Amino acid sequence: MSRRLLGVALTATLAVTLTGCGSGGSSSDNALEIWIRQAPDSDSAKTAVKLADAFTKASGVKTKVVALFDDFETKLNQQAAQKKLPDIVINDTAQLGNMHSQGWLREVDKAALAGGDKLSERAWVAATGSDGKFYAAPFSAQAFALIVRKDWREKVGLEPPKTWDDLAKLAQAFTEKDPDGNGQADTAGFVIPAGTKRGYASWYASSLIYSNGGDFIKSTGGGHFQSTVNDPKTVEAVQYLQDQFCKTKTVNPGAVSNDTTVTHEVFEKGQGGIYLVGPYVLARFVKSVGTDKIEVLPLPKGPSGGPGTLGEGENVYMMAGSDQQDAQKKFAEFAISPEGQRIGMNKDANGAIVRLPVNTQVDMAAERQDPRWKVFQDAYANAVYAPPVPNWAPIRQDSADSINAVWADCSSNVKAAMDQLNTKLTQELQSQKAS
Questions:
Q1: Count of alpha carbons within 13 Å of 12, Cβ hemisphere only?
Q2: What is residue 312's three-state secondary structure?
Q3: With 70 as the cut, is the pLDDT of residue 13 above it?
Q4: Number of Cβ within a 10 Å radius of residue 380
Q5: Which end of the chain is less crowded, N or C, counting CB atoms within 10 A of the terminal residue's CB?
Q6: CA 279, CA 379: separation in Å to the nearest integer?
Q7: What is the DSSP string of 328-385?
Q8: Taking the complete model, does pTM exceed 0.90, yes or no?
């Protein structure tokens, strides 16, 4: 299938959001094709279009934005098989190893990237491959915090949690004390995307693991890594969450099958009151739940470590095979500039594609008036990124499968499951020649 025909097919089946015209480096007008992992009709996709339009106005380079959410990586694989990768991909930091291992990414010369010296060093960590070289330009960062139903917390008469025990008590009160006052036992404490799709169970658990001083794997130097997933601190965190599913039963029903799309709706419908999540849903919940009903609280550090939460975000990836390498670089430089970062932040409105700015010259407080953003920014100071193994995706997926299983089956022994997972991750690191 030609690139033009593939574009028509994608547009018809996935309602792709476009701006400009043409289709990447092979089109007649040579528009720069930019893919972003966002729902086509979302506010975030519209923000991506604004960013691309501003870049076109500043540079004269025509652009075409393709917004896809479902099966994003599958569609990229299809393009790669036809040697028709887009010119630019804005995608998760955790996907760097996967895309680099397949030869999709151009190396980035940090020193030659205008504005690269203005980006935070922590953000550059997420653009680093297992060989220590850079394969992306940092674009957006985020850490995790608790979005809590403030009105429920005040109704049950509890203070913001300072420990994991406090957090468990708050979840239990939300489950048992009818915080919405409707006289029915229809509320839960935690809402958790605990399914295995895209590794969500591992993705969620990682913040608890990091806040307890645990980890999945650790670097042993020289591009080598060792699995540590059966470390007592990691086991303690997974056990804590199993207790919420199985002993106190404070997690929303069906969580073990849910991804984030469903979990967002569970929170919005008032079916649960504690959501450990990134800042990208804050504006959405302000609008859908009510600004006076929600608060953002830091995740308490665990009994054996902390503080720490998952750190992630999005990079601008300059894809291999493009005949527009100069335009790729110009777009990356615009995206990381103060102007590009501000457009991506979208102030306090829904649709931010820059959650926390990576450019140190951008003052978030000057761009956003909602003080709840600062909780996420403070958490980022202790955020832990996925390590630069050749391919993080199978490690996250294997971890999600194992963690989901001990949450779904309350008879499961967490320590035994983590021992088995440790063996799997050790084998995976060996297969990646990273052990």
A1: 6
A2: strand
A3: no
A4: 21
A5: N
A6: 11
A7: HHHHHHHHHSHHHHHHHHTTTSS--S-SEE-BTT--HHHH---TTHHHHHHHHTTEEP
A8: no
